[in-house]
Write a structure and sequence with these properties.
Blueprint lengths: L16 H20 L4 H19 L9 H8 L3 H8 L11 H15 L17 H4 L4 H8 L5 H11 L2 E3 L5 E3 L10 H24 L8 E2 L7 H33 L41 E2 L2
Antiparallel strand pairs: 1-2, 3-4
Helix pairs in contact: 3-4, 7-8
Length: 304
């Protein structure tokens, strides 16, 4: 990654006002979340210092050589004596995935992609609880197919707590969502919050920097819809979005099985779908615009 090259003759780096405006917009919902959860500016500023040092050290090396404290100080604007202290505390460990999330994602992936667990319409079957009642096509059989070290009762109790499954009138276990998205459990939801926003922001940032092949990162947005229309579109978005995710999940599972016998480095991917809506603030009258002209809705906006 290159250093910023847009500089004035004085040597001061110029920053795009459009980028600053975009960053302010991105940060507002995060600041709202932090204030809601008691994270103050002082607490965040210490976190940001560590992240600036970590990213500068990892992504701004020249000829793959370690970045010096002086170079990091110049790059980040953090005092050199703080750089040494912060570099000693930088977290270089791999991301730790909560066991509930790791196991849950694998189980749901199996449940939504393996034909033995799907009905004639390709939907996850309601599963009897025990192998003694239905053999492998049971919730116990599903859990055993992934891990023989964890009892299905433990998984079931946790999934009921998280709102991932429910019982039907026959006491069969039914998957409530066709992806592992806990309805409850703050730590589990926080994990996916970090994972999904990180990958979305990484794709958008990479596209804006323009050093790699552009990632898929597109959206459709309108701002003159009624509440009822938004509700209709939200339902359709969930339906079509889940169809896409399930199709990609099945294809990825097949490819992963084929790749198991191949050599070479591995890569990870994330495909995400999101929907958001909020009230539109009334616009102030603009006398410079022809009052008879109609506003054209935005659509198919892309960052690349």
């Amino acid at each position: 990654m290159r250093l910023p090259s847009s500089k004035k003759k004085t040597g001061v780096t110029t920053v795009s006002t459009a980028l600053i405006s975009a960053l302010c917009k991105v940060l507002r919902p995060l600041v709202k979340l932090m204030l809601t959860k008691g994270i103050t500016y002082v607490y965040l500023s210490d976190i940001l210092k560590k992240i600036f040092v970590e990213v500068g050290d990892k992504d701004f090396r020249v000829n793959d050589k370690p970045v010096t404290d002086s170079h990091l100080s110049l790059l980040t604007g953090i005092h050199r004596k703080d750089i040494k202290r912060l570099r000693a505390t930088v977290n270089t460990k791999a991301e730790i995935v909560p066991e509930t999330v790791s196991m849950g994602a694998r189980l749901v992936s199996q449940w939504t992609s393996d034909p033995v667990y799907l009905d004639e319409k390709g939907r996850p079957k309601p599963l009897p609880r025990f192998i003694r009642d239905a053999g492998v096509i049971s919730f116990e059989g599903l859990v055993t197919s992934i891990s023989k070290d964890i009892r299905s009762r433990v998984v079931l109790d946790e999934w009921l707590r998280l709102g991932v499954v429910e019982f039907d009138e026959h006491r069969r276990v039914c998957l409530k969502v066709e992806a592992f998205i806990p309805a409850k459990g703050f730590d589990e939801k926080a994990y996916y919050f970090g994972h999904n926003l990180h990958d979305h922001a990484s794709a958008a940032s990479s596209n804006l920097i323009g050093e790699n092949q552009p990632f898929l990162e597109r959206s459709v947005h309108y701002d003159e819809l009624s509440h009822e229309s938004v509700k209709i579109l939200a339902e359709q978005s969930e339906l079509l979005g889940m169809q896409t995710l399930l199709a990609i999940n099945k294809k990825a599972k097949t490819l992963e099985q084929d790749d198991a016998s191949k050599d070479g480095k591995r890569r990870r991917l994330t495909l995400g779908v999101y929907f958001y809506s909020e009230p539109v603030e009334p616009a102030k009258p603009d006398t410079s615009v022809n009052p008879t002209s109609k506003k054209t809705p935005y659509n198919n906006h892309s960052t690349h």
